[in-house]
Amino acid sequence: MIEVRKRGGVREPFSEEKLRRSLQRAGASDAQVEEVVEEVTRRMYDGITTFKVYRMARQALKRRSKRASLTYSLKRALLDLGPTGYPFEQFCGRLFEAMGYCVRYNQTIAGRCVTHEVDLIAEKNGERLFAECKFHNNVSHKNDVKIPLYIQGRAQDLAGSEDGSHHAFWILTNTIFSEDALRYGECVGLILAGHNTDHFPLTRELINRHGLHPVTCMTRLKVGQKRILIDNNVILCRELLEKPEHLDLLGLTDKQREQVLNEARDILECARVGKHP
Hints:
With 277 residues, the chain is α/β, with parallel strands linked by helices. 45% of the residues lie in helices and 17% in strands.
């Protein structure tokens, strides 16, 4: 049995079915899924890292469907926004902005009993949303029921004050929620958004529709270069096209600069709804 090595060195059996499901979620056709699975399994060896498996699958999928490979890379791209949670908060804020909300970050609000720091406040047409962003460096991390239990307590305290009034409280994560967490969130009216929910705004559909792909999707930039951009609050590929001067931070040659901009354009073009590779 072939085992894969996850971040941190933990090993687990390689699952063709898990790979197959991830490709299907990215929008690959049945034929493309089977072709990619066959190509990847043919190149597998014991102890291979999950990142190498992901990279092989992405490259194999890209040869068959650029748009599906871009969607496939989103989960990893969100993980690579780390190691801190700040860039993920900025990314989530941009998702709300794309839907027409005015967003404020890291606001301190007095509740009925105590004060609270709210990651995001999004407002539009008299509607006021609060959001808590939960970023994790381990893609397998599962947000358990303690998270919505804690947030519900905060939501109730905030709702008891004039400054804390809101129409909905979101919890956004770059990983998944446990079944109990989802059940409790639905029961009390919290909106949970992660990789195993259908809620906006943290969905591939919304990201593709508005071209909100993080710079960590890009292959023309090295890890350190992406980090420089993120540290300077450049979170999205589209922001490089809107303000190419951001690339001045990286000391690129003219040729490298054009290659990066071309890739950013290609990402946005491929992501457009209805655009086929």
